[in-house]
Amino acid sequence: MFDYAAAPPPNVLTRALRVAPKVSATLIMLALSAVWLGPIILIVMTSVKSNQAFLAGPFALPTSPTLAPYISVWQSLKFGSLLANSLLYATAGSALAVLLALVPAFALSRMEVPGKKIIFGLLLTGLMLPQQTVLIPLYDTLRALNLLDTKIGLIIVHGAYGMPAQILILRGFMTAIPREIEKAAYLEGASDFQVFWKIMLPLSRPGILVGYTLNFIAIWKEFVFGLVFLSNESNFPVTVGMLKLNSDRYMAVFNLPAAGLVISQIPIIILFILTYRQLSGGSFVGAVKG
Protein backbone atom coordinates (compact mmCIF):
# COMPACT_ATOMS: atom_id res chain seq x y z
CA MET A 1 0.00 0.00 0.00
CA PHE A 2 1.27 3.47 -0.88
CA ASP A 3 2.32 5.50 2.13
CA TYR A 4 0.89 9.01 1.58
CA ALA A 5 2.56 10.28 4.73
CA ALA A 6 5.95 9.38 3.29
CA ALA A 7 5.28 11.15 -0.04
CA PRO A 8 7.69 14.04 -0.60
CA PRO A 9 6.18 17.56 -0.49
CA PRO A 10 5.78 19.32 -3.83
CA ASN A 11 8.86 21.26 -4.76
CA VAL A 12 9.00 24.96 -5.41
CA LEU A 13 8.65 24.56 -9.19
CA THR A 14 5.47 22.50 -8.84
CA ARG A 15 3.95 25.09 -6.52
CA ALA A 16 4.91 27.88 -8.89
CA LEU A 17 3.24 26.07 -11.80
CA ARG A 18 0.06 25.70 -9.78
CA VAL A 19 -0.02 29.35 -8.74
CA ALA A 20 1.09 30.77 -12.11
CA PRO A 21 -2.39 30.78 -13.78
CA LYS A 22 -3.95 32.61 -10.82
CA VAL A 23 -1.12 35.12 -10.66
CA SER A 24 -1.30 35.71 -14.42
CA ALA A 25 -5.06 36.23 -14.29
CA THR A 26 -4.69 38.65 -11.39
CA LEU A 27 -1.99 40.64 -13.19
CA ILE A 28 -4.12 40.84 -16.35
CA MET A 29 -7.11 42.08 -14.36
CA LEU A 30 -4.96 44.67 -12.60
CA ALA A 31 -3.60 45.86 -15.94
CA LEU A 32 -7.10 46.15 -17.42
CA SER A 33 -8.30 47.99 -14.31
CA ALA A 34 -5.40 50.42 -14.60
CA VAL A 35 -6.22 51.06 -18.27
CA TRP A 36 -9.86 51.77 -17.35
CA LEU A 37 -9.31 53.68 -14.12
CA GLY A 38 -6.17 55.55 -15.20
CA PRO A 39 -7.89 58.25 -17.30
CA ILE A 40 -10.61 58.70 -14.66
CA ILE A 41 -8.08 59.20 -11.89
CA LEU A 42 -6.07 61.60 -14.08
CA ILE A 43 -9.19 63.70 -14.80
CA VAL A 44 -10.10 63.89 -11.11
CA MET A 45 -6.52 64.85 -10.21
CA THR A 46 -6.46 67.51 -12.92
CA SER A 47 -9.77 68.96 -11.74
CA VAL A 48 -8.39 69.79 -8.28
CA LYS A 49 -5.14 71.37 -9.51
CA SER A 50 -4.45 74.90 -10.54
CA ASN A 51 -3.57 75.24 -14.21
CA GLN A 52 0.02 76.16 -13.31
CA ALA A 53 0.34 73.00 -11.20
CA PHE A 54 -1.00 70.87 -14.04
CA LEU A 55 1.44 72.36 -16.57
CA ALA A 56 4.30 71.80 -14.11
CA GLY A 57 3.43 68.12 -13.65
CA PRO A 58 0.45 66.67 -15.53
CA PHE A 59 0.78 63.23 -13.88
CA ALA A 60 1.94 64.41 -10.46
CA LEU A 61 -0.30 64.10 -7.43
CA PRO A 62 -1.93 67.39 -6.44
CA THR A 63 0.08 68.99 -3.63
CA SER A 64 -2.40 71.78 -2.95
CA PRO A 65 -5.88 70.57 -3.99
CA THR A 66 -8.34 73.33 -4.78
CA LEU A 67 -12.02 73.53 -5.64
CA ALA A 68 -11.54 76.77 -7.58
CA PRO A 69 -11.94 75.03 -10.99
CA TYR A 70 -15.32 73.61 -9.90
CA ILE A 71 -16.50 77.00 -8.65
CA SER A 72 -15.33 78.74 -11.83
CA VAL A 73 -17.00 76.20 -14.14
CA TRP A 74 -20.23 76.22 -12.13
CA GLN A 75 -20.51 79.99 -12.22
CA SER A 76 -19.20 80.77 -15.71
CA LEU A 77 -21.18 78.08 -17.54
CA LYS A 78 -24.30 78.24 -15.35
CA PHE A 79 -23.76 74.56 -14.79
CA GLY A 80 -26.82 74.21 -12.60
CA SER A 81 -29.05 75.12 -15.56
CA LEU A 82 -27.19 72.74 -17.86
CA LEU A 83 -27.58 69.87 -15.40
CA ALA A 84 -31.28 70.65 -14.95
CA ASN A 85 -31.81 70.57 -18.72
CA SER A 86 -29.95 67.28 -19.11
CA LEU A 87 -31.90 65.80 -16.21
CA LEU A 88 -35.17 66.85 -17.86
CA TYR A 89 -34.20 65.41 -21.24
CA ALA A 90 -32.89 62.13 -19.80
CA THR A 91 -35.78 61.61 -17.37
CA ALA A 92 -38.65 62.54 -19.69
CA GLY A 93 -37.06 61.11 -22.86
CA SER A 94 -36.39 57.74 -21.20
CA ALA A 95 -39.90 57.61 -19.76
CA LEU A 96 -41.39 58.36 -23.19
CA ALA A 97 -39.25 55.68 -24.85
CA VAL A 98 -40.38 53.07 -22.30
CA LEU A 99 -44.05 54.07 -22.61
CA LEU A 100 -43.90 53.84 -26.40
CA ALA A 101 -42.27 50.41 -26.22
CA LEU A 102 -44.44 48.69 -23.58
CA VAL A 103 -47.46 47.80 -25.72
CA PRO A 104 -45.47 46.68 -28.82
CA ALA A 105 -43.17 44.60 -26.60
CA PHE A 106 -46.17 42.93 -24.94
CA ALA A 107 -47.85 42.18 -28.25
CA LEU A 108 -44.67 40.85 -29.86
CA SER A 109 -43.80 38.65 -26.89
CA ARG A 110 -47.16 37.21 -25.74
CA MET A 111 -49.58 37.39 -28.69
CA GLU A 112 -49.78 35.61 -32.02
CA VAL A 113 -49.61 38.68 -34.23
CA PRO A 114 -49.57 38.05 -38.02
CA GLY A 115 -46.16 38.88 -39.44
CA LYS A 116 -44.74 39.29 -35.94
CA LYS A 117 -41.15 38.62 -36.96
CA ILE A 118 -41.33 41.07 -39.86
CA ILE A 119 -42.83 43.78 -37.65
CA PHE A 120 -40.20 43.16 -35.01
CA GLY A 121 -37.45 43.40 -37.61
CA LEU A 122 -38.82 46.66 -38.98
CA LEU A 123 -39.03 48.17 -35.51
CA LEU A 124 -35.42 47.21 -34.83
CA THR A 125 -34.17 48.98 -37.95
CA GLY A 126 -34.07 52.09 -35.77
CA LEU A 127 -31.14 50.53 -33.93
CA MET A 128 -29.16 50.31 -37.14
CA LEU A 129 -29.67 53.91 -38.22
CA PRO A 130 -26.83 56.26 -37.23
CA GLN A 131 -27.90 59.63 -35.90
CA GLN A 132 -26.49 61.40 -38.94
CA THR A 133 -28.95 59.63 -41.26
CA VAL A 134 -32.03 60.95 -39.43
CA LEU A 135 -30.90 64.50 -38.68
CA ILE A 136 -32.40 66.13 -41.80
CA PRO A 137 -35.82 64.38 -41.61
CA LEU A 138 -36.08 65.09 -37.90
CA TYR A 139 -35.01 68.70 -38.39
CA ASP A 140 -37.68 69.23 -41.08
CA THR A 141 -40.32 67.52 -38.92
CA LEU A 142 -39.55 69.60 -35.84
CA ARG A 143 -39.52 72.79 -37.88
CA ALA A 144 -42.89 71.94 -39.46
CA LEU A 145 -44.38 71.31 -36.01
CA ASN A 146 -42.81 74.46 -34.52
CA LEU A 147 -40.87 72.27 -32.06
CA LEU A 148 -37.39 73.22 -33.24
CA ASP A 149 -35.22 74.69 -30.48
CA THR A 150 -37.68 73.61 -27.79
CA LYS A 151 -37.27 71.27 -24.85
CA ILE A 152 -40.40 69.30 -25.67
CA GLY A 153 -39.17 68.77 -29.22
CA LEU A 154 -35.88 67.28 -28.06
CA ILE A 155 -37.69 65.08 -25.53
CA ILE A 156 -39.90 63.68 -28.30
CA VAL A 157 -36.84 63.00 -30.46
CA HIS A 158 -35.09 61.15 -27.62
CA GLY A 159 -38.23 59.14 -26.86
CA ALA A 160 -38.78 58.08 -30.48
CA TYR A 161 -35.10 57.34 -31.10
CA GLY A 162 -34.83 55.26 -27.91
CA MET A 163 -38.01 53.23 -28.47
CA PRO A 164 -36.47 50.43 -30.64
CA ALA A 165 -33.89 49.58 -27.99
CA GLN A 166 -36.62 49.53 -25.34
CA ILE A 167 -38.73 47.17 -27.46
CA LEU A 168 -35.76 44.83 -27.80
CA ILE A 169 -35.09 44.83 -24.04
CA LEU A 170 -38.72 44.56 -22.91
CA ARG A 171 -39.70 41.94 -25.48
CA GLY A 172 -36.84 39.71 -24.37
CA PHE A 173 -37.76 40.23 -20.74
CA MET A 174 -41.50 39.61 -21.21
CA THR A 175 -40.80 36.49 -23.25
CA ALA A 176 -38.99 35.03 -20.22
CA ILE A 177 -42.01 35.48 -17.92
CA PRO A 178 -43.60 32.05 -17.25
CA ARG A 179 -46.74 31.56 -19.30
CA GLU A 180 -48.42 29.72 -16.42
CA ILE A 181 -49.05 33.10 -14.76
CA GLU A 182 -50.71 34.43 -17.87
CA LYS A 183 -52.81 31.29 -18.40
CA ALA A 184 -54.03 31.37 -14.80
CA ALA A 185 -55.19 34.96 -15.27
CA TYR A 186 -57.07 34.10 -18.45
CA LEU A 187 -58.77 31.17 -16.69
CA GLU A 188 -60.00 33.63 -14.07
CA GLY A 189 -61.61 35.68 -16.84
CA ALA A 190 -59.00 38.43 -17.22
CA SER A 191 -58.90 40.38 -20.47
CA ASP A 192 -55.76 41.12 -22.49
CA PHE A 193 -55.57 44.60 -21.01
CA GLN A 194 -55.91 43.26 -17.45
CA VAL A 195 -53.16 40.71 -18.09
CA PHE A 196 -50.96 43.48 -19.45
CA TRP A 197 -51.72 46.02 -16.73
CA LYS A 198 -52.00 43.85 -13.62
CA ILE A 199 -49.58 41.03 -14.40
CA MET A 200 -47.07 41.81 -17.11
CA LEU A 201 -46.24 45.34 -16.01
CA PRO A 202 -45.53 44.49 -12.34
CA LEU A 203 -43.45 41.46 -13.31
CA SER A 204 -41.62 43.46 -15.96
CA ARG A 205 -40.52 46.14 -13.51
CA PRO A 206 -36.85 44.96 -13.42
CA GLY A 207 -36.77 44.97 -17.24
CA ILE A 208 -38.37 48.40 -17.35
CA LEU A 209 -35.79 49.65 -14.87
CA VAL A 210 -32.93 48.21 -16.92
CA GLY A 211 -34.21 49.77 -20.13
CA TYR A 212 -34.93 53.10 -18.47
CA THR A 213 -31.49 53.27 -16.88
CA LEU A 214 -29.65 52.43 -20.10
CA ASN A 215 -31.68 54.96 -22.06
CA PHE A 216 -31.13 57.59 -19.35
CA ILE A 217 -27.38 57.16 -19.64
CA ALA A 218 -27.53 57.27 -23.45
CA ILE A 219 -29.52 60.53 -23.44
CA TRP A 220 -27.29 62.05 -20.76
CA LYS A 221 -24.23 61.45 -22.96
CA GLU A 222 -25.98 62.40 -26.22
CA PHE A 223 -24.47 65.34 -28.09
CA VAL A 224 -25.51 65.47 -31.76
CA PHE A 225 -29.28 65.98 -31.35
CA GLY A 226 -28.80 68.74 -28.80
CA LEU A 227 -26.24 70.48 -30.99
CA VAL A 228 -28.36 70.38 -34.17
CA PHE A 229 -31.88 70.94 -32.84
CA LEU A 230 -31.13 73.59 -30.19
CA SER A 231 -29.76 77.10 -30.62
CA ASN A 232 -30.91 78.84 -27.45
CA GLU A 233 -28.31 78.44 -24.71
CA SER A 234 -31.04 78.25 -22.07
CA ASN A 235 -32.12 74.90 -23.60
CA PHE A 236 -28.64 73.37 -23.90
CA PRO A 237 -27.89 70.06 -22.16
CA VAL A 238 -24.61 69.71 -20.33
CA THR A 239 -22.84 68.01 -23.26
CA VAL A 240 -23.53 70.96 -25.58
CA GLY A 241 -23.01 73.62 -22.91
CA MET A 242 -19.51 72.34 -22.22
CA LEU A 243 -18.48 73.26 -25.76
CA LYS A 244 -17.57 76.66 -24.34
CA LEU A 245 -14.68 75.00 -22.54
CA ASN A 246 -13.18 74.13 -25.94
CA SER A 247 -13.20 77.72 -27.20
CA ASP A 248 -10.04 79.75 -27.78
CA ARG A 249 -10.41 81.32 -24.36
CA TYR A 250 -9.84 77.97 -22.66
CA MET A 251 -7.40 76.33 -25.06
CA ALA A 252 -4.53 76.64 -22.58
CA VAL A 253 -6.66 75.74 -19.57
CA PHE A 254 -6.95 72.07 -18.59
CA ASN A 255 -8.40 72.02 -15.09
CA LEU A 256 -11.73 73.65 -16.05
CA PRO A 257 -12.74 71.00 -18.66
CA ALA A 258 -11.70 68.30 -16.19
CA ALA A 259 -13.86 69.83 -13.47
CA GLY A 260 -16.78 70.07 -15.89
CA LEU A 261 -16.42 66.40 -16.81
CA VAL A 262 -16.38 65.33 -13.17
CA ILE A 263 -19.50 67.36 -12.35
CA SER A 264 -21.34 66.03 -15.40
CA GLN A 265 -20.75 62.41 -14.37
CA ILE A 266 -22.03 62.75 -10.80
CA PRO A 267 -25.73 62.18 -11.72
CA ILE A 268 -24.82 58.98 -13.58
CA ILE A 269 -22.91 57.68 -10.56
CA ILE A 270 -25.84 58.51 -8.27
CA LEU A 271 -28.26 56.75 -10.65
CA PHE A 272 -26.10 53.62 -10.66
CA ILE A 273 -25.89 53.58 -6.86
CA LEU A 274 -29.66 53.97 -6.52
CA THR A 275 -30.56 51.29 -9.08
CA TYR A 276 -27.79 48.74 -8.60
CA ARG A 277 -29.67 46.62 -6.06
CA GLN A 278 -32.83 46.56 -8.19
CA LEU A 279 -30.91 45.82 -11.37
CA SER A 280 -29.13 42.86 -9.82
CA GLY A 281 -32.14 41.51 -7.90
CA GLY A 282 -34.40 38.62 -8.83
CA SER A 283 -37.48 39.07 -10.97
CA PHE A 284 -39.87 36.14 -10.72
CA VAL A 285 -39.04 34.74 -7.30
CA GLY A 286 -42.26 33.31 -5.91
CA ALA A 287 -44.30 34.18 -8.99
CA VAL A 288 -45.02 30.54 -9.81
CA LYS A 289 -45.56 27.92 -7.14
CA GLY A 290 -45.15 24.35 -8.20
CATH superfamily of the largest domain: MetI-like
Mean pLDDT: 85
Largest sheet descriptor: none
* Ends distance: 52 Å
Q: What general outline do the C-alpha atoms trace? A: flat
Which fold name fills CATH's third level, the topology of the largest domain?
MetI-like fold
Question: How many E-type strands?
Answer: 0
Order of helices and strands: HHHHHHHHHHHHH
Which CATH class of the largest domain applies here? Mainly Alpha
Number of domains: 2
Based on helices, strands and strand pairing, what is the structural class? Answer: mainly alpha
Overall radius of gyration: 26 Å
Question: Unreliable stretches, pLDDT < 50, 5 or more residues?
Answer: 282-290
Helix content: over 70%
Gross CATH architecture of the largest domain = Orthogonal Bundle
Number of helices: 13
Strand content: under 5%
What does this structure look like?
By secondary structure, the chain is mainly α. It is built from 13 helices and no strands. The chain has two domains: 12-47; 69-280, MetI-like fold (Orthogonal Bundle), CATH 1.10.3720.10. The chain has helices at residues 12-47, 51-56, 68-76, 79-110, 116-124, 131-144, 151-175, 179-187, 192-203, 205-221, 224-229, 238-241, 255-280. The chain is flat.
Topology:
Layout: H1 12-47, H2 51-56, H3 68-76, H4 79-110, H5 116-124, H6 131-144, H7 151-175, H8 179-187, H9 192-203, H10 205-221, H11 224-229, H12 238-241, H13 255-280
Helix pairs in contact: 1-13, 3-13, 4-7, 4-10, 7-10, 8-9, 10-13
